[in-house]
Amino acid sequence: MEVSTVTLWLIAGAILVAVEVFVMPTMILAFAGFGAITAGLALNFGMVETIPNQVAVFFFGTIVWALILWIPLKGWYGPEGGGYEDMIGHTAIVGENGLQKGIKGEVVWSGSIWNARLSPDSPVDNVEGGREVVILKVETGVLSVALPDK
Hints:
CATH 2.40.50.140; two-stranded antiparallel sheet; 3 helices; elongated
């Protein structure tokens, strides 16, 4: 059984949208998925025939879908600033190299390694690896951390 080109475009579109929803929320994959579905439908209804025209419809469709859906979908992807504010107050574990005031290091939070800096307000200048720290602030992909108050 041979799979038609229309079916391939529609399957590719569905896969891109599914990856967007379930794996990697970037918005771009959804737009590309809608573009692929648009190309498949245009081919199905005889609006395009050649592969270069199908690819052109795919790219043009991706851009049109992005223009139409950017603002409505933007709210689904969390608040301005990246949506990492929920990390504040949680604890993380300092990476094996430790943290030194003024030098970027690493911590592990929620199973992921994050760049981190010891807070300038911290009363200590070094924190050894494996210690627990509290996340105080998130800015541009770097966590500001300090030892927990005890």
